[in-house]
Design brief:
The structure is a single chain. By secondary structure, the chain is α/β, with parallel strands linked by helices. The protein folds into two domains: 155 residues, Collagenase (Catalytic Domain), CATH 3.40.390.30; 127 residues, 3-Layer(aba) Sandwich (Cytidine Deaminase, domain 2). 40% of the residues lie in helices and 20% in strands. Helix 1 packs parallel to helix 5, helix 1 packs across helix 6 and helix 6 crosses helix 7. The structure holds tetrahydrodeoxyuridine. Tetrahydrodeoxyuridine binds next to helix 8.
Length: 295
């Protein structure tokens, strides 16, 4: 999918395969089959020259992306028909655009965050591929949506965020971004959740309703099941955002979360408002857990 050309020294051997996996993950999540993009890995001096020529900004940067498809304010996921029209019958590919990455900047950022250069190149590829798919970070809401997708992609390729974990405010921001994914045609009460595990991984969720109303799954349990199914069974915190009102977790969710985080933080608020925080053992006192079965 990616045509990677490296015009600078020091590209780690494992980086191209990782960048390819990242690009495939973005396209799978965005529903684009058979996409193509051109990636050039260069030094600071080259990216500075491109930045000056293309954007009038005479300075180096970490990554530049030049989309070829205009998703008209949405992302690829909302524009299946547009993507079908973009397929080139000769190559069978939908060419999404060009990406330029500075290996010098990537190396500096990898050192700063204390992770490998390959991981940073993978992250920058995720960021740039999301731009090619129509994501942007001009407004707070757009930035939160893009960050949530970056986390989804990095977790998908098994490179979850290392080092400094998210703040409660950032968790809440991501829970708000998940409101767009809620499937709530019956109650119209949209809920988004963002779960932080003790090993620093982040899993998002939304409520998923059903015509058989009792089958509905709350946002908290969607996030929890995603985490446990990826091997993360120790929870540190969950943020829960309601669109039209504050959604403290229901009784079933309190019990469900208790199994994996008896004293986890629960951050609850309405989109646009200031969230409140409580500990799960305050919300579910005298609870029953796995230890009780051993007594
Ligand atoms: N809901 C949640 O997702 N989380 C909560 O903590 C409370 C309720 C959802 C379930 C249903 O889709 C809708 O809100 C109305 O009950």
């Amino acid at each position: 999918m990616l045509d990677i050309e490296c015009a600078a020294a020091g590209l780690p051997k494992d980086a191209p395969a990782l960048m390819e996996r990242v690009a495939r993950s973005v396209c799978r999540l965005e529903g684009v089959d058979g996409a193509g993009a051109y990636v050039r890995v260069v030094d600071d001096e080259t990216i500075r020259a491109v930045n000056a020529a293309q954007r009038g900004l005479d300075r180096a940067t970490d990554v530049l992306s030049f989309p070829t498809v205009d998703f008209r304010g949405g992302t690829a996921r909302d524009n299946a028909a547009l993507i079908r029209r973009e397929y080139d019958p000769d190559t069978g590919l939908c060419f999404l655009g060009d990406i330029i990455i500075s290996i010098d900047r990537a190396r500096e950022q990898a050192d700063e965050y204390g992770h490998s250069l390959a991981r940073e190149l993978g992250y920058l590829t995720a960021h740039a591929m999301l731009h090619l798919c129509g994501y942007d970070h001009m407004t707070d809401g757009d930035r939160a949506k893009m960050r949530a997708m970056e986390d989804r992609v990095m977790a998908d390729v098994s490179l979850p965020r290392e080092g400094g974990s998210l703040t409660d405010g950032e968790l809440f921001e991501r829970a708000c971004a998940m409101l767009d994914m809620a499937y709530a045609p019956y109650s119209k009460f949209r809920v988004g959740a963002c779960l932080l595990t003790e090993d620093g991984r982040v899993f998002t969720g939304c409520n998923v309703e059903n015509a058989s109303l009792g089958v509905t799954i709350c946002a908290e349990r969607t996030a929890a099941v995603k985490a446990v199914s990826e091997g993360a069974t120790k929870f540190a915190a969950i943020a829960i955002a309601g669109e039209s009102g504050v959604a403290w977790p229901c009784g079933i969710c309190r019990q469900f979360l208790r199994e994996f985080g008896p004293r986890m933080r629960v951050i609850v608020g309405k989109k646009g408002g200031k969230p409140e925080t409580a500990a799960l053992d305050e919300l579910l006192p005298h609870s029953f857990g796995p230890e009780d079965l051993l007594k």
